[in-house]
Amino acid sequence: MQAKSTLYFKGLNGLRFMAALLVVFAHVPTFITKTSNPNIYDFRPFSFFSNGGLAVDFFFVLSGFLITSLLLKEHEESGTISVKRFYIRRMLRIWPLYYLIVFIAFAVFPILANIFHLRPDPGLSVPQLLMYILLLPNFTFIFGPRILLFPLWSIGVEEQFYLIIAPVIKYKKKSLALIFATVIIVKLFLNFFAGQVTPATTATIIILDLRFEAICIGCLGAIFIRSRYKYLLDKLFGLPLQLLFFGILFAVLFFNKTLPAAGIPVISPLFSVLTNRIYNGVPMGIVFLYVILCVSLNKRSIIKTGGKTFELLGNISYGMYMYHVMTCFVVIGIMKRFFLDIPVTTATIMCYLLCVFFTMLVAYLSYVFFEKRFLNLKKKFENA
């Protein structure tokens, strides 16, 4: 089997949308619980509704795979990499919506909070604003809680990683696998020592949030499918391994709270590692990478996420991730004002449906009327 040389990998938009949806599910109960009015069921004790962190790690692996693929392809075709054009492409894809969200949080949301009688966000201080402007959102917790702009921490991690990746690939192409593997090993050691510190300190929180190990797993995947070992893809995509890896993914998504504590020999210790934030960036990163490669490169994949519908949903996944906290905040604020006395089951269904619907609606409108303008401009800086 030959790895595709195109930058388009089928099915990945569908996976991207599913990951974004998991993040929304995980955060809906953050703002309203069965102890508030209107009361809804808090599903966070259930495994499937607590996969926000895993979904973000999937985004990291996917991003590392795609960005490294893009840069390697550019190097193969032109013999070099235009670092300047790479930075411009990243800015046009990430920065417009990123800074729009920051502007809405600091300038627009306080007005909406007064209109809908929402509680103010305590995480909108001047020092935090400076951190957001400097693309250091993963450091803003130092100056207070992160609520409306909480999702931006992962954007900061990616931008900080990609600040150095283009020059590294350009000048150290022959040593890339070693470099990425070294980053993973060093990061695991740092995670281990950070995990020993109780209570957590500013430094340990920053270390554990800096998920470079997950991004590097994706980077290694991009190298692998262009290496002399790519012939192994046929064997890796066999049905037994598909059942193994997709089975692990399914088990982690639906039983991440029960299997680690079940006391089952081998299984429980394994899933304790797979669900432990200190260590799981690498083993779950490998699972995510397998899913990415299988869905995008294997015609016999047992999971299919292609088609026009998934393509559209994948296009709005970045917006879903960025807007979902704000839309959930507003939806729940409206429910608290106008739907105080409805039954808990009705309130729960209504809350989840409205949060998902308006998150997707806002993300779609943003994509069509705002983001696409910059995406069209971004095409001018892509390589012929």
Automatic annotation (TrEMBL):
Residues 10-367 form the Acyltransferase domain. GO terms for cellular component: membrane. One of its GO terms (biological process) is polysaccharide biosynthetic process. InterPro entries: Acyl_transf_3_dom, Acyltransferase_3. It comes from the Bacteria. Keywords: Acyltransferase, Membrane, Transferase, Transmembrane, Transmembrane helix. The chain crosses the membrane at residues 12-32, 52-73, 94-117, 129-155, 176-194, 200-224, 236-255, 278-297, 318-335, 347-370. GO terms for molecular function: acyltransferase activity, transferring groups other than amino-acyl groups. This is Acyltransferase. It comes from Panacibacter ginsenosidivorans.
